[in-house]
Amino acid sequence: MQDNPKVSGSLRKRLVLTLIGGAALLAFLLFLAVRNFAVQVAQQGQDNILFASASSMLDAASLRDGVVEVDLPYSAFAMLTTPADDRVFYAIYEDGTFLSGYDDLPFFGSLDDDRPRYRTAQMRGATVRQISAHRTLIGANRRINLQIVLAQTQDALSETLDRIFRTAALLGVSFFALAAAMSLWVTSSTMGQLNRLTTSVTRRGPQDLSPFRNPVPQEMAPLVKSLNSLMGRLDHSLSQSEDFIAEAAHRVRTPLATVRSYAEATLQRVDKEENREAMRSMIKAIDESSRTAGQLLDHAMITFRADQMERREFDLVELLRELVLQLAPIAEMKDLALNLHGAPSVPYAGDPILIQNAVRNLIDNAMKYGPAESAVDITVTAGPPVRITVCDEGPGFPADEIDRLTTRFARGQNAEGKVGSGLGLTIAQDVAGAHGGSIELSNREEGGACVTLLL
Amino acid sequence: MKFLLVEDNRALADAVASRMRLDGHVIDHAEKLEDASAFVATGDYDLILLDIMLPDGDGRTFLERHRASDLDTPVIVLTARSQVSDRIGSLDLGADDYITKPFDHAELEARCRAVLRRKSGNAKTTIERGGIVFDPVAGHLSVGGVGVTLRNRELRLLEVFLNAPGQVFSKQKLADRLFSYDDDVSENAIEVYIGRLRKHLEGSELSITTLRGLGYRLDHAG
Amino acid sequence: MRYLVAVILALLALPLAAQDWEDRQVFGAGDAAVTLRIVSSTDTDLFAPLIEGFVSANPDIAIEYLVTNTSDIDKRFRATPEAFDVAISSAMDLQLKLTNDGYAATLEGVTHPAWAQWRQSLFAFTSEPAAIVVNRAAFEGLAIPRTRQELIEILRAHPDRFRGRVGTYDVRQSGLGYLFATQDARASETFWRLMEIMGGLDVALYCCSGDMIDDLIAGRIAVAYNVLGSYAEARVAGDGPLDIILPSDFRTTMMRTALVSGDSPRPEAAERFVRALIAYTPEGAAAGGGRSLPPLAVEDPGADRATIPLGPALMTFLDALKRDKFLEEWENAVVQD
């Protein structure tokens, strides 16, 4: 009955994964951006110092008597001091001829361009940042191009970058952790809305098909709207089902009633005994089919109600008293006594219409099988389980068929000549089942059948 | 007794009406709610038999209006619908009883009597003849001042004879009137009830004569 | 043919080089597992207590201690870095350039204050100020100068008394002398005025502190400028004939440094030795009994600017052009032919 829905993926998981994945990606991009920016800034810083140093060296150059003099300022190298004690290399060239410094450090700039050139290269087993700069010295009768190459290792830079990378990584990880925590929170609060809706659907009674009125987030409004519309249609179709069963009964019984009326009228006018007998058989057949149709429809209605069963508190004794009163004319007609025994009041929670119908069927059967001027005893005792026993003074159940009798359409062997069907017992058993009970069949020692409804 | 039958199915209505008339009742028949209202306004009925589904409306609306207008004429609802759903509605709306179609006339007769008995305050019809006083609604018979309550079938038997004095009823005809068709009735059973009724009628001017091979007849010695 | 000549010259040079040490001494047990070759500019007797302490604590290590001047250390070390395990020199600039040029090994595990080490490779272990040392006898009747300016005035006032009796390093030969001279020149113009005065007084030029102090004690010279105070003090403990003056106008303090050769065949033992060097303390110095080196200053000298900082700026005056220019100026001032 309760089909589990086909599950494909989890909204929560998808949401969490998307948010956390997004956060991870963003954190990583943040890290990369900070890192690249830091590398640029740090490299720019080193380049600036190299440029300042090279410039001060070039500025210290002069021509004296046509000879180049380079009075290296102390500060040129002093400014290259770093916390990581980076190594420093330099070379001074005069028109491409090595003057002093490190001759394994060639000039790599362009003489046509006054701007300094930078590059990162390997030198003496270390990665160095190099600058090439030059300056033209003009003497009385000479023009000399002085070139300076300056190189510095990048230990301090990489230490700084390492520190920045660690900070950036920490930033990224913190961002990720925060975003992950927030995405979990957002997910669970979003899912909370769905869960609340689910709970309120689950908590409803089976008959409660009223629309949801509690406020929901905007995004869930279409869902609730569809749900409400589904409820509405369900409500409509449920009442239609009830209407349909009632209508079906009407459609079947009305023509039967008509036929029966004709047959009865005919019977009044016919005198020939064999014709009368035929008419009687006809009326009996009509009665049997109308009763069967009625019970079938009752059974359908009971199955329907049992599925949707809603329990409510009521007094069983009062219900039975009313039922007995209702059936009294039929009993009287057959000169049968309907006796209700037992406690003055037995409160019970269940579906009174179902129980009344079940007991009515039991009493109907008892009245059918009980001989004229006998008694039908109805006894109710408080439970648990609550027992409602209906006994007649008829022939009783055949001992070998007691079990089979409760099966649908099974009629007792000794029921020949009586209009009716085994549906009565089936209805009683279904109603008992819907209330978590059962029925028991037995025979009385002094004669007669007993059916007990256990609730 | 004066009954109003509100039923759009003419065959059924005729059958019911003819049986009621056999029992000595006066039957007016309405096929629509509109007619029924007109009948109720002009005639004074002891009982209304009301169908639920009528061409111009639901019988329950009529019932509702009827109860609202302070008329306490008892109503028995005739319904072809499921017992489970309709019953509640009609009883809540003030029907005194209901019966599902198709019904056995014996059952309808029993229900009518039960309803009339409950409401006996406003309608008291006794038959006085040949030294007996008979109240068919209460099932009470007194002969020479000594009262006895008849069992249902004795009462029905007496009713059949009193409604057609001098007429001969075969055992089969009596069985058709007394029993429902699903009862197994032997001719012996009729003899038993005839015997009982004869005993009840002792001391009055009424007696049941056996016409061998034909049946029985109620004779008035006076 | 030229190739053959080169080979023969090299072969001839080897034994020459091997014998060409100012001093050579071996410390430690003869059966020691390793023998460290240490090239140093520090006189053996000053260094001996420290080495002896080390070899007694590390009996598996013997030490061959080779002494030469600072320029020679630089030259030899650059030629054959694998031949030496440790280089110890007072010429901070040369040591720094050796390190900058990649000759020194990085000793990761050694902890030493940042100001006293460079690149975890060059480690300072003494603080030694340059001093004016005078023979008290020569200054009889005169005030002992406390600053360079006072010295200049005295020399100027008594040219006859001091002619030919002033001495300083020949900065063309002595690496330490050159370091002190360049640092002085950087600090104050007073240096050049002093040099001119001294040049005018026929200054005696020395290659090494030892000779200068010898002549001071002997009274051949009256004043020595920029002598290592530590040497002088070591030579004349207590009441000698000398006064050691740390000029109060400005001071120039050198730190003796050690480095492990990047090509050392015994890096582990060499590192142990350097660790022992930098663990050198005032208490250890006192235990040496007078003739030993002063320990490293305990405080960071950054603030007083007296101690020559270990940094790339030291390379400035090692530049060939710069050096030529400086020496030219120096010669102009000092060598007044």
Automatic annotation (TrEMBL), chain A:
Span of domain Histidine kinase: 247-455
Xref: Pfam families: 2CSK_N (PF08521), HATPase_c (PF02518), HisKA (PF00512)
Gene Ontology CC: plasma membrane
InterPro entries: 2CSK_N, HATPase_C_sf, HATPase_dom, His_kinase_dom, HisK_dim/P_dom, HisK_dim/P_sf, Sig_transdc_His_kin-like_C, TCS_sensor_his_kinase
Enzymatic reactions: ATP + protein L-histidine = ADP + protein N-phospho-L-histidine
PROSITE patterns with a match to the protein in the record: HIS_KIN (PS50109)
Subcellular location, record wording: Membrane
EC number: 2.7.13.3
Protein name in the entry: histidine kinase
CDD domains per UniProt: HATPase (cd00075), HisKA (cd00082)
Primary site of residence: membrane
GO molecular function, one term: phosphorelay sensor kinase activity
Keyword entries, A-Z: Kinase, Membrane, Phosphoprotein, Transferase, Transmembrane, Transmembrane helix
Chain coiled-coil ranges: none
TM segment ranges: 15-34, 168-186
Keyword NAD (UniProt): no
UniProtKB/TrEMBL annotation, chain B:
DNA-binding region: 124-220
Domain of life: Bacteria
Modified residues (4-aspartylphosphate): D51
Keywords: DNA-binding, Phosphoprotein, Transcription, Transcription regulation
SMART domains: REC, Trans_reg_C
One of the Pfam families matching this protein, by short name: Response_reg
A biological process term (GO) from this entry: regulation of DNA-templated transcription
Domain spans labelled OmpR/PhoB-type: 124-220
The Response regulatory domain, residue ranges: 2-116
Membrane-crossing residue ranges in chain numbering: none
GO molecular function (one): transcription cis-regulatory region binding
PROSITE patterns given in the database record: OMPR_PHOB, RESPONSE_REGULATORY
CC terms in the record's Gene Ontology section: cytosol; protein-DNA complex
Protein name, entry field: Chemotaxis protein CheY
Automatic annotation (TrEMBL), chain C:
Keyword Glycoprotein recorded: no
Record keywords: Signal
Entries under Gene3D superfamilies matching the protein: Periplasmic binding protein-like II
Keyword Signal: yes
Coiled coil (residue ranges): none
Signal peptide boundaries: 1-18
GO cellular component terms, semicolon-separated: outer membrane-bounded periplasmic space
PANTHER family, per the entry: PHOSPHOGLYCERATE TRANSPORT REGULATORY PROTEIN PGTC (PTHR30006:SF25), THIAMINE-BINDING PERIPLASMIC PROTEIN-RELATED (PTHR30006)
Entry protein name: ABC transporter substrate-binding protein
Provenance organism: Pseudaestuariivita atlantica
